[in-house]
Predict the 3D structure of the following.
Amino acid sequence: MTTSLATAVPAGIYNIDPVHSRVEFAVRHLGIATVRGHFGSFEGSFEIGEELASAKAHGSVEAASVDTQEQQRDDHLRSPDFFDVERFPQIEFTSKEIRPLGDDRFDVVGDLTLHGVTRELTLSAEILGTESDLWGNERVGLEARGELNRKDYGMTFNQVLGSGNVLVSDKVKLIIEVSAVKA
């Protein structure tokens, strides 16, 4: 099935521009606030053909590049309690299926490997537009969002607080904003 997305984005291979992209997460802290963080080192690419359903995507994140603007928390996140970056330095996502939803929206179903565990994850994505930059490079912008349960990936560290709330929620929201350049 060809959609407006397939005609709006020229076919080709696109490489993520890390300077103009972000890989972020948000998780509830103490049951009352949201902690947001991002990864400073990542790469990825995607290939768009004539049909949206044939598109493919792959991305990789350096787990040690986690940044929540709190050094002590970041060090804990790098430890075996969470990402265990010594044993599992990479977080990877590889698409298996693209499901067009109409307008410039689609679902990306793929395998996420995190903390040594691979599980299927669906990201809801939207093309934000295409443009040629000042140097004549073709670019495409997109945003993807998803949610995972960190326990599904073996990240079980937690503490129950006096109120019954927990230190950190099991539910983690993912936000990926991409500007990619056609190869």
Summary: Helices lie at 4-8, 71-78.
